[in-house]
Amino acid sequence: MKSSLALKMFFYFIIVIVLSSSIIGVTLYFQSSKELDRQTEKLLTQIVDNAMHHTDLYLKNYERVTLSALSSSTVKEFLDVNDKSFYTMFTLPNQIKEKVMQPSFINNPEISLMYFVGYNGTSVVDVNAANLSVNGSVIAESLDELKEMTKDDGSLTIMDWSFTNGNLALARKISGRQTSKVFKGILGIELKIEELNTLWKGINLGDNGYFYIVNDRGRIVYHPIASKIGKQLEGKLFKQLKENSNRFFVSEDEIERMNFNRRSAYSGWTLVASMPVSELRQPVLNIRQTTIITCAVALCLAFLLAYRFGKTLIRPIQRLELGMRQTEKGNWTQVPMTGDKDEIDRLIRSYNVMVARLSDLVDQVYAAELKNQEHQLKRQAAEFQALQLQINPHFLYNTLETVICYAVVQDSDEIKDIVRSLSYMLRYSIRTDLEEITVANELKHILHFMTIMNHRFERHFEIQVDIPPEYLLKTMVRLSLQPLVENAFKHAFPDGIEEQHYIRIGMKVEDNDLLVMITDNGIGVSVDRQKELNELLLSGAIVQRAANAGGPDGGIGLLNVHNRIRMVFGDQYGVSIEGKVGQGTTITLRMPDKRPLDFATRTPSHPGSLKEVRSLQNALEIRG
To answer: Cα(583)–Cα(17) distance, rounded to whole angstroms?
Structure first.
């Protein structure tokens, strides 16, 4: 099935649009939801704090009412009497009602009940509503319970129960003097609980949200449902209130509700604001619904625009494809321009130019075919000549062998040795089929080289070879020893060879590397020159320069060996120089230590065979 560029482009457009829209929509939704939750929690916290503040102020107002009652001399006298005379039982209580209670009712009409009960067994009760009736003896009988529940420091106490239904009861211990801590009775007032509704009337917690108040014992002090006032709060919910003080938590009743509570340090009440989770989440749900609808509409519009945009791009490409198919069949077809002067038009124009040029080139190819045949014949002739030139090295070898024969006829051993060694060296040097060779073959090449050098010196000079026999079949780069030995003859002994002079070839294995050392006891090399040559060798920037009296100069032979080792084995290998003035020079070749060739697998005719190795040991006096 052939793939369509239009479908691919439309598919990629859809991926980009859907991905970007999804990322934007989801990000906006979660950020908006998070911010809305934060604002809701902040607003609900402020509402609860304000409600608690106003409630505390509301209760403190009645604390002032009780303090004003304690300043009455009649109340003090009432608390101090110990007899049950007519004055004590009737006259004095009536004076308290007239001078203390009635003014308090007038100034605070929300007070529905006020009472004084002394430790001496006397009590005074007055109500502020015609439908209320409270017996003073009932209050007097409750003296012990009132003493136990009220605070010992004389501060206002909010009671768990009241003498009248649906009222909020406040009580405190009282003494004859305000500063005295010797209490002689109890003062209590009861308020209409509906006053709290008036206090919180301006606070909106939604259709199903409300406040309720719980004391430290878990008894409901206030609840919008009157039947729950005075009852114990459900144990699980009361535990959640204690564990989540001043924090938001979710409770489950008939529905999930979000709660936030704040405990008043003044009254000891815990004011709880409770709202259904569904109402709190409704703005988030609205945002989600709006986001989904908006993204869906945007995607539909984006799909339509992507389709039209894709068709605009694909239509000229399809025409170009049709023209290419005709060209493939051999019909040089020109594609019409779109007229938009955009990149597509420039592509079509380039294609038309290419077709025109190809048409011309095809004609030229046919015309040039005959000329190519002529050129082919000439090239074959040139290759034949090159093959003939390859005969020249063989002609040179044959000529050298002929010279050897004449030397034998003339009984000239010197000419025979020189020419034979030169022949071997030439044959070894121009081989191109092998770059790595055995150590034995390299030493054999040195042997032929020394044959020629000894005839040049007109004296016998031996190269000292300190190589263990088991190293002779290790491999190294071809033509790496002879240039360095020749370099030593040229630069280490500028005044000629003396009896004490030597050139030594050593070999060892170090850190899996094969090290070959060519050491002489010539004039040596200075520290600066040695440092310069090693830096140039490491950088690969050595150039041929004239020899001087400073020792081996690293000319073309040194450079050639160094570069060929690096080409064969890598840049971490090569040549290094070490020496001192007047104490000689050591040139070290570092190559990888490869596995030695197996003696048992070599044949006598093969270079490096056991027979040749043994003869080489005898010729060079190799010491293991």
So the answer is: 81
**In what helix (H) or strand (E) does residue 189 lie, and over which residues does it extend?**
strand 183-192
Residue with tokens 């209590």: 188
Q: Which residues are 210's β-sheet partners?
A: 274
Judge contact between 565 and 475, C-beta under 8 A. Answer: no
Which CATH homologous superfamily contains domain 197-279? PAS domain (3.30.450.20)
- The answer to whether 594 and 435 have CB atoms below 8 angstroms apart is no
d(CA 21, CA 337): 36
Q: Which fold has domain 71-196?
A: Beta-Lactamase (3.30.450)
Structure tokens at 585: 């020079």
Encoding tokens for residue 393? 């090295």
Give pLDDT, residue 489. 86
Measured distance CA(188)–CA(132) in Å, rounded = 16
Integer Cα distance of 324 and 354 in angstroms: 11
The residues that bridge with 517 in the sheet, in sequence order, are: 506, 588
Give me the residues paired with residue 27 across strands. none
Q: Name the token pair of 517.
A: 């050392």
- Equal CATH topology for 71-196 and 434-620: no
User: Is 149 exposed, middle or buried (CB count within 10 Å of its CB: 0-12, 13-18, 19+)?
Assistant: middle
Structure-block tokens of residue 322: 């049709």
Q: Based on C-alpha coordinates, what's the Rg of the chain?
A: 59
Q: Report the distance separating Cα 47 and Cα 243, nearest Å.
A: 21
Q: What is the value of pTM for the model shown?
A: 0.40
Tell me, what's the pLDDT at 517?
95
pLDDT of residue 390: 43
Instruction: Output the 3-class SS for 488-529.
Output: HHHHCCCCCCCCCCCEEEEEEEECCEEEEEEEECCCCCCHHH
Inter-CA distances, 352 with 314, 332, 345, 361, 433, Å: 18, 9, 10, 14, 52
Which residues face 212 on adjacent strands? 272
Distance of alpha carbon 423 from alpha carbon 416, whole angstroms: 10
What's 556-599 look like in SS3? Answer: HHHHHHHHHHHHHHCCCCEEEEEEECCCEEEEEEEEECCCCCCH
**What integer pLDDT is reported at residue 508 of this predicted model?**
93
Superfamily designation of domain 434-620: Histidine kinase-like ATPase, C-terminal domain (3.30.565.10)
pLDDT of residue 400: 65
What six digits make up the tokens of 37? 């939750």
> In this structure, what token pair is assigned to residue 342?
């955009």
Cα separation, 349 vs 328, whole angstroms: 18
Report strand pairing: 513-520 vs 503-510.
antiparallel
Q: Which of 255, 293, 301, 287 is nearest to 274 (CA)?
A: 255
**Distance between CA 205 and CA 260 in Å, rounded?**
12
Q: Name the stretches of the chain with pLDDT < 70.
A: 1-10, 86, 88, 166, 176-180, 196-197, 199-202, 340, 374-402, 406-407, 409-411, 430-434, 540-556, 595-624
Which residue's entry shows tokens 């490409």?
317
Distance CA 469, CA 481 (A): 17
Which amino acid, 356?
A: A
